[in-house]
Specification:
425 residues, mainly alpha, two-stranded antiparallel sheet, 4 strands
């Protein structure tokens, strides 16, 4: 009697369906960055842990998608390793000296210039983000968008709960956060308030950590609601974005609305909007409204544009210090940087430029640029995705250096899902 030869385990429709469902459940938690599965281990957010487990499982089983994933992984690690080796070699060759004017990760060890611990840990965060990108790009199902928007709705509902709780109780209602930042005991969820007409309001941030991070996470999906015609989600996100009192949110929304009116040739609406703004401005000059308007304008707009706010001064100062330091590096170091994860400014432009040099900046920017050429069938949705991608890039470069946020990598992978005909209803 001949012994049966067992066939190699491979992906079937059943296993593919399991992976798609796993990803759908996984992305419900993607906005949550202030809760850690293991509080003593930084980076163990729910989606990071689940995506790592899933990635190990799918890599252990043969599938037709695996060669494409392995190619992307090869080039990813090749770039990371080459930049790492070159930057560290040049640090030794040119005797790099860091100084206290830089926003160094783990400032207590700023004398260390060769393979700092932060170089390793920040690279691990980068790998984790890239894994999420690959899972979304190659394994997510056609109804991914529905689950992503459920994740956004949960974020907004929690943010509105915090907003209402503070309005009624006058104290922080956050019960999710268990994460602290860096090497200190600083709460990862920053509690900020705004006084409007004598009423203290909490700045919306949900479980993203702070208002600018909420904008970074939610704004691209608000843009997509125009192409998807999800008007309830649009209103929900608009409410939350307005009450972040974030200059970044206001500027980004204004730019997109201007684009949308022009793209849809709604020139009458542009004129009517202009009249409406003028009317509102006149009303706000009335004594009963002027105090409220002045307070909000001064706190949200004027101090940011004039550079007088603490965050603006800090951001501008850090960017200037980093770019000046980069400009004095040897030519070879200018191309590869001083090492990924060495410094972390409040903007990603100077952070990336100093850490990875010209080469690293160009490679990272290419992740966004190639998304602009995806052939998404629905024209309106394609335009929304393209504009959201461009604005997300500039938000990141100017105000939010969070390369490890799952929302970034999900959005970069989402375009490929929509190109394949993902559900857009």
């Amino acid at each position: 009697m001949e012994s049966a030869v067992s066939a190699p385990v491979s992906f079937t429709n059943t296993s593919t369906g399991f992976v798609e469902r796993f990803i759908n459940i996984m992305v419900l938690s993607f906005p949550c960055t202030t809760f850690l599965v293991a509080p003593s281990v930084q980076g163990t957010t729910i989606i990071t842990v689940l995506s790592t487990i899933l990635f190990l499982l799918v890599m252990a089983v043969p599938s037709e998608k695996k060669p494409a994933i392995m190619r992307e992984l090869f080039w990813f690690f090749a770039i990371v390793i080459v930049l790492s080796i070159c930057s560290q070699f040049f640090n030794l060759l040119f005797e790099l000296k860091l100084n206290a004017s830089l926003t160094i990760i783990n400032l207590n060890k700023y004398l260390d210039t060769f393979y700092r611990i932060s170089h390793i840990t920040q690279t691990l965060y980068l790998i984790s983000g890239f894994i999420i990108y690959l899972l979304i790009k190659y394994y997510s199902g056609p109804n991914l968008l529905n689950y992503l928007f459920w994740g956004i709705r949960l974020l907004c509902l929690y943010a509105i709960y915090e907003f209402a709780y503070f309005l009624i109780m006058g104290e922080n209602g956050d019960f999710v956060t268990n994460r602290t930042l860096g090497y200190s005991e600083i709460d990862a969820s920053i509690f900020q308030t705004m006084n409007v007409g004598g009423v203290n309001l909490v700045r919306i941030k949900g479980y993203t950590g702070e208002p600018s991070m909420f904008t970074f996470t939610a704004f691209p999906f608000w843009v997509l609601t125009f192409g998807l015609k999800r008007w309830i989600d649009n209103a929900l996100l608009l409410f939350c974005l307005v009450f972040t009192f974030s200059t970044t949110a206001y500027l980004s929304m204004s730019l997109f609305i201007l684009f949308w009116f022009i793209y849809k040739r709604q020139f009458k609406l542009i004129i009517l909007t202009g009249f409406f703004i003028v009317a509102v401005m006149l009303i706000l000059q009335m004594e009963s409204f002027k105090v409220i308007f002045d307070r909000v304008y001064n706190s949200v707009i004027e101090v940011k544009l004039s550079g007088e706010s603490v965050s603006s001064k800090s951001r501008a100062g850090a960017m200037e210090n980093h770019l000046e330091f980069w400009s004095h590096l040897p030519l070879l170091s200018k191309f590869v940087g001083i090492g990924f994860g060495y410094v972390r400014s409040t903007d990603f432009f100077s952070t990336l430029f100093l850490n990875t040099g010209i080469v690293g900046f160009v490679i990272f920017a290419n992740l966004f640029v190639k998304n602009l050429f995806l052939k998404i069938a629905d024209i309106d949705l394609r335009k929304c995705f393209q504009v959201a991608t461009v604005l997300l890039f500039f938000i990141m470069m100017a105000t939010v250096p969070e390369f490890s946020y799952a929302s970034l990598w999900i959005f970069l992978g989402l375009g490929f899902v929509m190109e394949k005909g993902g559900e857009v209803c």
